[in-house]
Amino acid sequence: MTEMTGAPAQVLHTLFRSDQGGHEQVVLCQDRASGLKAVIALHSTTLGPALGGTRFYPYASEEEAVADALNLSRGMSYKNAMAGLDHGGGKAVIIGDPELDKSEELLLAYGRFVASLGGRYVTACDVGTYVADMDVVARECRWTTGRSPENGGAGDSSVLTAFGVFQGIRASAEHLWGEASLRGRTVGVAGVGKVGHHLVEHLLEDGAEVVVTDVRTESVRRITDRHPQVRAVADTDTLIRTEGLDVYAPCALGGALNDDTVPVLTAEVVCGAANNQLAHPGVEKDLADRGILYAPDYVVNAGGVIQVADELHGFDFDRCKAKAAKIHDTTLAIFARAKSDGIPPAAAADRIAEQRIAEARRR
């Protein structure tokens, strides 16, 4: 393990706790010259090299960064398994404000750390990182996806992420209301950035009424200027309490479903692009007890990882879109398993993913 200078001992002592998911490897990285501080977490390589994006975020502490990397990488193991990919789960987080701290030197240093893992981890874009950043990282690391088409990559993965989430919403509508259509339904989208604004386009094309919010006013303005029929509200708290909301789509950071939000949700369905939407174990049961159908986040937001995985073998958009379209059927299968086993959909998805990983271990 490569330790970040000054990393608190209590962080290192928790890396292999069973409740953190039993990670195979956690690398704490520091490059003094560029100011890089990063965490690379490999949860599992049972199905193949760990695959997951790089998040660039101003964490309040190193402990918070490690915790996020552990949670996100575990989620990637389950996401890749449910997407039918031959990849395990990994995630990297870079500590800092991407608007202030990101530099070519820092990204190159990060690429060298990823390369030092020898292909056990394949990286890509995430919150705070973009295609142009991956082009820089790839100069030091061949295990980099999410690059620009000009540099042999597939480009922006948010397009297929949004498409996959839309398929999850369609499946939720079919399961709950008997028709895979959003016509006449009201969908609230929290976060209309890289993925959310593409999702809004799909929803409008399908006949939905859309309500949006985002902490960035410019993101909301981009949507409402292009689509005046879209209604904007001040914040997420207002959105989730909106009367007549059929679907809530959290598309920003994690923890959107918690002890404060679940009791006041008005929507019958939650299906969005954000990772780690359930703030803690037990929230999935709280949703079920309220009669709210939850489409597991790591299942419906897998379109992006399907795209970047395909990039490793010669990217073909139509092939990827066809794979992402299967998220509709996968989501329906999870709802069916949840009903037959008498458990929430989140638990059903975990069981299916764990079964695939276990079968791979036995081979």
From TrEMBL:
Record bears the keyword Nucleotide-binding: yes
Pathway membership, UniProt: Amino-acid degradation; L-valine degradation
Record protein name field: Valine dehydrogenase
Reaction equation(s) it catalyzes: L-valine + NAD(+) + H2O = 3-methyl-2-oxobutanoate + NH4(+) + NADH + H(+)
Domain Glutamate/phenylalanine/leucine/valine/L-tryptophan dehydrogenase C-terminal per the UniProt entry, residue ranges: 155-363
Source organism of this protein record: Streptomyces triticagri
Family annotation (InterPro entries): Aminoacid_DH-like_N_sf, Glu/Leu/Phe/Val/Trp_DH, Glu/Leu/Phe/Val/Trp_DH_C, Glu/Leu/Phe/Val/Trp_DH_dimer, Glu/Leu/Phe/Val_DH_AS, Glu/Phe/Leu/Val/Trp_DH_bac/arc, NAD(P)-bd_dom_sf
CDD domains: NAD_bind_Leu_Phe_Val_DH (cd01075)
Superkingdom assignment: Bacteria
GO annotations of cellular component type: cytoplasm
Localization per Swiss-Prot or TrEMBL: Cytoplasm
Family note: Belongs to the Glu/Leu/Phe/Val dehydrogenases family.
